[in-house]
Amino acid sequence: MEFENISLSDSTSNITTCEVTSQSISEVHAQQSLCLPPLLRFPLIAFLSLLLVVGVVGNVLTLLALPYVRRKYGAQFSVLQSSTAILLLHLSFCDLMYISVGFTHFIHVLIVDGDPFLPLGTPHGERLCYAVAVVRNWAAEADFATMGAIALCVCRHKMCSECRLAGNPSYHSKHKDPVFGNRGVYFVILFIWIWSFAAISCDVFGVTGVYKWTNTMYGCDVTYTDHTSYGMIVNILGNLLVILVTYSIIIRRLTVDEREARTTMTNPIHNQFTKHIKMLIFLSIAYTVCILPASFLSWGMFDLNKPSHKPRTPEDASDHK
Q1: What is the pTM for the complete model shown?
Q2: Which residues pair with 222 in a beta bridge?
Q3: Pairing mode, if any, of strands 209-213 and 220-224?
Q4: Rounded CA gap, 106 and 294, in Å?
């Protein structure tokens, strides 16, 4: 199959137009190669494949086990009847969505050592690349927003005087909470997806960036030329601030509770609600420590004005060989 006079650059970018005349797919693919040595590429494929299997299995089991336990053993695990459990299920769904779309794409990129959608041609390959990038980034932003919602929900439960007297938040829905009640929590989930889409909307509609092939291991992702989108980083920092503030309030409340427990000669360790909150605090800390570095390092890295992201010429491809 031959390409005749196909422009490889976006007309809105400042990159010099690269005309490819009578080039085969293999020649175009050579220009878009990641140039990763096999000693690095194969271990990355193995590592990402392991993460893919663990992530898919773990999140699928969570999505299956939590509803089953809620329904069959609700009396023994009353904490799982709370709105927090619903948000944890939603978090697993977001993780599964990101892993299924994102990791499979990363692995595919490494296996073919280039754009995996190139053989589909224009415009089908570009559209599929766009869709993969949008869905992956949307799921990632929803993931962050869900962590913030969980922190708010736990804080609301902990500050609820009736929940504190009961010792767990299982019946918080009966306390007339319009946000984190039985129905309210589903509106919170809907709002998470709307808010997350708003965070990437400037890039989705091409105002600040374009979702396309980046010629990096990330494959299809948002790229920038003259502008940088702050929507994604605002969502990340905003939810991080919510997590820090709410869990600071919770930790302060837990400290007061333990002090009161010592004066009344009761052991706060046996409070299931306290165990539930401490588990979520550790989960949030671990999640933040693991996710934030990658988010900050990748933000804005696909600036097409940088020399590293200029399109490669046929001469560069031949030199690499």
Answers
A1: 0.76
A2: 211
A3: antiparallel
A4: 15
